Amino acid sequence: MTERDRPWLMRTYSGHTSARASNELYRTNLGRGQTGLSVAFDLPTQTGYDPDDPMARGEVGKVGVPVPDLGQMRILFEDLPSRR
């Protein structure tokens, strides 16, 4: 297969209210033919705040997925295919 013959890459940039909800969304989209994944983290996660920190109040759950710890990161990517 040449570069020109490759199928289109279908990618969404999204996150949800929790790592588990985002993981379910990603698996559903992949099951429907999506071929790429970009994760949208919430603003507190992007800036290094714990989503439970009082400074993060008002931002958690608005846009993107909050990831306060490694356990939630594992849940976020659980059972998702990846290239190594």
Tally of alpha and pi helices: 3
Question: What percent of residues adopt helix (DSSP H or I)?
Answer: 25-40%
The proportion of strand residues reads 5-15%
Largest sheet: 2 strands, parallel
Rg, alpha carbons: 15 Å
Oligomer: single chain
- H and E string: EHEHH
Q: Count the domains.
A: 1
- The strands making up the biggest β-sheet line up spatially as 1-2
Number of strands: 2
Please tell me the overall pLDDT.
80
**What class do helices, strands and sheet pairing give?**
alpha+beta
Shape: elongated
Low-confidence stretches: none
Give the N-to-C terminal Cα separation: 21 Å
Blueprint of the fold:
Layout: E1 11-14, H1 19-31, E2 36-39, H2 43-47, H3 70-77
Helix pairs in contact: 1-3
Describe this protein with a few key phrases.
31% helix, 84 residues, alpha+beta, 2 strands
Question: How would you characterize the overall build of this protein?
Answer:
With 84 residues, this protein is an alpha+beta fold. The chain has one domain (14-77). Helix content is 31%, strand content 10%. Strands 1-2 form a two-stranded parallel sheet. Helix 1 (19-31) packs parallel to helix 3 (70-77). The longest helix has 13 residues, at 19-31. The chain is elongated, with a radius of gyration of 15 Å.
Short description:
The chain is of the alpha+beta class. It has helices spanning 19-31, 43-47, 70-77; strands at residues 11-14, 36-39.
